[in-house]
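## retry 2 of 3
previous attempt timed out at serialization; input unchanged, resubmitting
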Amino acid sequence: MRKKKTDTQPQYYMSAINNPVLNYRVYIMKPREKLLFFLLTFIAGGLVGLVFYGGLFKNDDGVATVATYISDVLVFCVVGLLSSKIFIPVITQALKNRRLKKLKIQFRDFLDSLSNSLSGGMNVNDAIANSCHDLAMQYSDDAYIVREVQEIINGLRNNIPLETLLKDFGERSGNDDISNFAAVFETAYRTGGNIKEIIRRTTDIISEKIMISEEIQTKITSNKMQMQIMNVIPIFLVLMLRLSSSEFDAAFGSIVGVICMTIGVGFFLAAYKMGQKMMDIKG
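## retry succeeded, writing output
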């Protein structure tokens, strides 16, 4: 039985015909992706850390000491590592959501093609094969939906029931519309229900949800841009203050300055997290 926790799920499952099939409920970065995003978040976080906590332990004349350089290196490394730990999961979730959105749109196109093939008089198996050909021309052979439909076709050739193949796809998809369609299809297929009407209705529902989601995203695009600008303004304000006046720079490096800065960073991170939740539109 598959576990529900995403962090314990594998990236691939073995299908009914013993082929590795993708588990869309989790996103596991490739080694190159891990290295790239680690370096980006580490360097960006380290530089931001120096803006807020750099230049400590200067002498009374404001000249950097050996302790200043040591503390700068420590701040850069510690804040960089913390940034990687905090933001890499955020990036991973964003990549997962982008993949799920692609799969949802491709699945809608699959149902649309399948509905047209069934309306043309084809049986279900032939309609699926024809849809796979149409999708390969519309997208590419390595598109998510093309690989999934091809896996279904291969399963049918090996006498695996269609409802079993669709149910497996629905469980792995991480999308309620796909899993619900698979469950309804299984019941209708066994009882001789109206498959054409089920596919047509499911296509309409998914299309409506995608359209509504895109309309909402369009309306809040300006708000997202404003939020992103507000996220970086505090960093530039602190940087300008420190560069414009040695007195401000010295104040930031004092014990009181470090305490106040830490409190400010806490509010900054809390506001960022709250903003991300407010702008997160579930599709």
